[in-house]
Amino acid sequence: MTKNQITTILFDCDNTLVLSEELAFEGCADLINEISRAKNVSLEKPFTGETLIVEFVGQNFRGMMVSLQQRYGFTMTPEELDDYVKREEDVVIAKLKEKLVPCPGVDEVLEKLAKKKEYHLAVVSSSALRRVQASIDKVGQDKYFGKDVFSAATSLEKPTSKPDPAIYLHAMKTLGKKAEECVAVEDSKSGTLSGTRAGIKVIGYVGPYSDAEKPKMEKILTEAGAVVIMKDWSEFEGIMEKIQKGEI
Length: 248
Description:
HAD-like_sf; 48% helix; 248 residues; single chain; HAD_2; 6-stranded parallel sheet; Rossmann fold; DNA polymerase, domain 1; phosphatase activity; alpha/beta; 2 domains
């Protein structure tokens, strides 16, 4: 087995560090239904947070709107889209500040990692930077990452969304890291594809999914390129040891 020299751990934010997806998609659904009415889009039934999350988990609001314009044949000006993106941020951040909690077990892992100082820690998300920062601030995780928080919606010259690998490539360039010295933790297909396409080993995390959904998500994340599946944050240390030894 070839031993790896992993120096950096890149964490997705939504439903990896914090249980934010359901809260965020509730706000998104309300806004998308409003846009549908304004654009005379005939929906079979209004979107709910639950139906949106099934289709778009791992994507940011801008990415969702690009997909929905293609699907329903309507258009938005860049100015309209920017305005709705800003409104979506405000709606979601308000919900997060009210109700957000960390994923079970992750704070203990982050605390241990911070004490050991073995790895450089960063956040790499599709979500807008304001939202990501508000999330980690709310649950007190900001102290582990400092300024190393990267957003596909905000940090890039041209905004994008996972599964585009651009945000991982940007994060590595900014941190001065190579793909072979990084590990990413992702809970979605789009996020896993993003990390894998950037050449990074991805741990697929299925903790936030229901017991009924876990087997399906394990398969989806594995097919998207995850090198190992993690069901609970208590498994993280053992997984990292195996990755460092070249066993994964």
